[in-house]
Amino acid sequence: MCGIVGIAAKSNVNQALYDALTVLQHRGQDAAGIVTCADTRFYLRKDNGLVRDVFRTRHMQRLMGNMGIGHIRYPTAGSSSSAEAQPFYVNSPYGITLAHNGNLTNVEKIKEDLFKADLRHINTNSDSEVLLNVFAHELHALKQLTPSPEHIFQAISKVHQRCEGGYAVIAMLVGYGIVGFRDPNGIRPMVFGERQTEAGTEYMIASESVALDALGYKVIRDVAPGEAIFIDAEGQLHSQQCAPASKLQPCVFEFVYFARPDSIIDGSSVYKARLKMGEKLADKILSERPDHDIDVVIPIPDTSRTSALQLANRLGVKFREGFIKNRYIGRTFIMPGQTERKKSVKQKLNAIDLEFRGKNVMLVDDSIVRGTTCKQIIEMARDAGAKKVYFASAAPAVRYPNVYGIDMPTASELIAHGRTDEEIGTLIGADWLVYQDLNDLIGSVTEGCKTRFDGFECSVFDGKYITGNIDQAYLDRIEYDRSDAAKAARVKSDNAIIDLHNDE
Ligand SMILES: O=P(O)(O)OC[C@H]1O[C@H](OP(=O)(O)OP(=O)(O)O)[C@H](O)[C@@H]1O
Ligand SMILES: NC(=O)CC[C@H](N)C(=O)O
Ligand SMILES: [Mg+2]
């Protein structure tokens, strides 16, 4: 997943963008970038690394201007080379820069059309560069020297007609403003808000509400699926629905793992959803094993903490912090390679023996994806002296690839793919493995929430791809392109950025 942000303010936005990206860091750890706009110029700084490593004082000083956009990257297309760090830039029309969260599923077709019909060249393997060029082409086709909000919305309607997949996008047009839009299913999240200052109202658009909270912005609302929000150069906000048949079907995995618990996505609190996941999973445990012999519930930090706490409460069993997390190690699942992920689990988590010795422990994680974490954790629990090790996953089994912005392209790398729950339990070395049911996961997000959801993007759990047009040939192709082995074999030396001047 990536994190995106755009701010239209009344004074320099560089520090605010930096701060927002830091708050969104959990959505991507590979690369970070900011583009600001002052007068008729864009200023760019982007590179591989965490926000705190990419931006030095000298870069911050050069990022001038009262409007800007930022991105933190977790790649789902192309490579992790810094040439594919975002935001991307095109000089025509107007000068446009764009940051994208999600993944396009018809990139090959669009690329061909861009080249043959629109006479545009794409210089990376990033789907986001493709998206930017579609937007630029559609704006160009309107032949307006000064685009009005309606022209911008018209171009976005065309983007929806040409692009398939999941996308939340923030773009900036030199001298004209910032626009944010969300795909017609609202797969990827996006929210916007305002802040009053003496100089006037400032606006911010971001992936998650937590970024707005942290910067003192008041959330106005989520951007609706297919809708676009435009803040013009005078600071006026305009909005329009640009995809007539839109439906609200957000990615349920945001609630399971990606988003921060203190975010509210599409009106549903991620924290409350995770508490409910714990409750519902406890009910399943009680119905399957009413006379269970669990002595203690232990979360696998970080993300599962909220669910595990409520699961223990509901079971009436002690909750203990049996694993301590090294706060300086990032999230392992979003790391690019399996060797790195495996090594990081050991560096990240350490067991407190006394919580395990002679006890029947129930370990709780939010999800099991490749099985990297749970296999090692179960071993650690046994080494620490646990009698029996049970394992509970607050999400159902992840059995199918994701094509909408989560880098899970390879079915064979998913531990649950083609296996029964019992087989997975044996493989990870658990004495009992229990998964959440999909209906209960959805109930956790919707119960007590006023939003009318049309459904959820649950493909990793049920193999149904809501945008259609995902066939086996496509899945085979992304498996070939994006497996860990393919990524490792890819030459990563192509770091030359053909782009705006990018400060070293
Ligand atoms: O089965 P796996 O392939 O190991 O993936 C699942 C694990 O990865 C994630 O943790 P991560 O370390 O990324 O982040 P967290 O600290 O937020 O839990 C997730 O919370 C699970 O613990
Ligand atoms: N995780 C994401 O949202 C990735 C965005 C885009 N597809 C990229 O690879 O850069
Ligand atoms: Mg985890």
| SS content category | alpha+beta
What is the global morphology?
globular
Low-confidence runs: none
Round the Cα radius of gyration to an integer and report it: 23 Å
Query: What is the number of helices?
Result: 17
* Oligomer description: single chain
CATH-defined architecture of the largest domain: 4-Layer Sandwich
As for the number of domains, it is 2
Strand tally is: 22
In CATH terms, the superfamily of the largest domain is Aminohydrolase, N-terminal nucleophile (Ntn) domain
Q: What are the distinct ligands in this entry? A: 1-O-pyrophosphono-5-O-phosphono-alpha-D-ribofuranose, glutamine, magnesium ion
Cofactor: Mg(2+)
Function: Catalyzes the formation of phosphoribosylamine from phosphoribosylpyrophosphate (PRPP) and glutamine.
Protein name: Amidophosphoribosyltransferase
Catalytic activity: 5-phospho-beta-D-ribosylamine + L-glutamate + diphosphate = 5-phospho-alpha-D-ribose 1-diphosphate + L-glutamine + H2O
